[in-house]
């Protein structure tokens, strides 16, 4: 799916994200190439990737575990903590994208569709 | 950060993702607007958002919990399961993006930097 | 409540866990019999049981997800929430005990040994 | 192992949990004393304890993350992995017991009641 997404984007003349690779499709390609070059795809079953994603999500929770809500809001002011937070965000995103790649899911489209549905399920009150 | 990212994208003339809103910045804006319109930002502390992310990640694991690796590879062939998987992927991504928005983290940049670091930490053997 | 449970047990002269099965070994036997009678042991690999345990732990987190620390301290005052909390505690304990049963781990002994180690690792300051 | 533990306790004529503290109530007292002596109760809100429990549960999952079902069944044969597994089991149990202590929940009673309910919800077929 990432290949057809890529060619569809090019065919339409869109740059589809920044040229230096900061778009989802490019990151998915880098992640897939990284795993393939090290022969790691054997481990990347959807079940294992979902488990890995949940493990990384917990590592993100762990950073905040004993912090008060106020301390958690200021976490990026601490250089060491900020680096850990960005590292775990990267890990969560990495496993989410690899999970989607293996199952052929377009994560951004799935989220866009979900927001559409939620806008219907949780309408804003009139007069707000 | 999402605002400067947006104006930077416009200033450079890049479409930075598809015009129908399927890029990370647009999704973050939709999520933020959705929460603001319902006065939900009060709940969106980084600590709560990290916990919510881990809860959704576990809901994704739950779909695969009793499946064999073979069954998990074929999960998208079952219409009901496929819908649940896409739904949980959307939820995980939603909380990850909202978490990043609140803390001013660029998730795609964080992942790109992480892959750079990993390529150094886990070099591929010569001749491979 | 743990103190009244303990004194109730002593006052009645009961031994080694209560005769109605409220000790860990008896619960493990009931859980094993329950699974065996329904032919569910095939699903109870250590990997699956660990995943199931993490899923239930997340369901426990979910109850508190949007609560403030103050609201979370009063959660047992709400009948519906209290029932959910007890239900998830039971589920977490169930999977933990089944996990231990399958791998031959004595959970109480493991914890006792860990507390011993921690008392060495985190000594209390003199004069405290 | 749970059967031999039980018979060892009975054969020695020991009562209400072993005198060296291997019962739930004794472990809860040791955990509470450990936290109080270090002034850690301030961190032990139900919400934080639930999050800590989920983090430890994920650390248990992590041990099995890339293992096949067959490898996971043999994990206790590897000394290093076995020690990690016992350590995480202890951590999960520790936070579960502290969570229950703070909220006044009897974990064993909650599980016993749940098994009773499940025996009604999932009856075994006649003739089995």
TrEMBL record, chains A, B, C, D:
Pfam family, one: MazG-like
Any one GO molecular function term: nucleoside triphosphate diphosphatase activity
InterPro entries documented for this protein: dCTP_Pyrophosphatase (IPR052555), DCTPP (IPR025984)
Protein name: Nucleotide pyrophosphohydrolase
Residue spans of biased composition, Basic and acidic residues class: 1-11
Spans annotated as Disordered: 1-21
UniProt-listed GO biological process terms: nucleoside triphosphate catabolic process
Organism: Streptomyces antimycoticus
UniProtKB keywords: Hydrolase
Superkingdom of origin: Bacteria
Keyword flag Hydrolase: yes
